[in-house]
# Entry
Amino acid sequence: MKKECQECGAEINIPDDILVGEIVACQDCGSDFEVTSKTQNSVELKPAESVGEDWGQ
Ligand SMILES: [Zn+2]
# Structure
């Protein structure tokens, strides 16, 4: 399935077998999103706040 990136608006490819709590990354801007809920044909994402972890790349 696809989900719109909340940062840049690009479409993120979400694997159908993704689980709640997993992290997906936008291929376009590199933002990470955590899956907060999942139904048969859609998922809810929230920005994954990786404070103090991914800075400095
Ligand atoms: Zn993006």
About this structure: The longest strand covers residues 32-38. The chain has one domain: 2-47. The two ends are 29 Å apart (CA to CA). Residues 5, 7-8, 10, 26, 28-29, 31 surround zinc ion (CB under 6 Å).
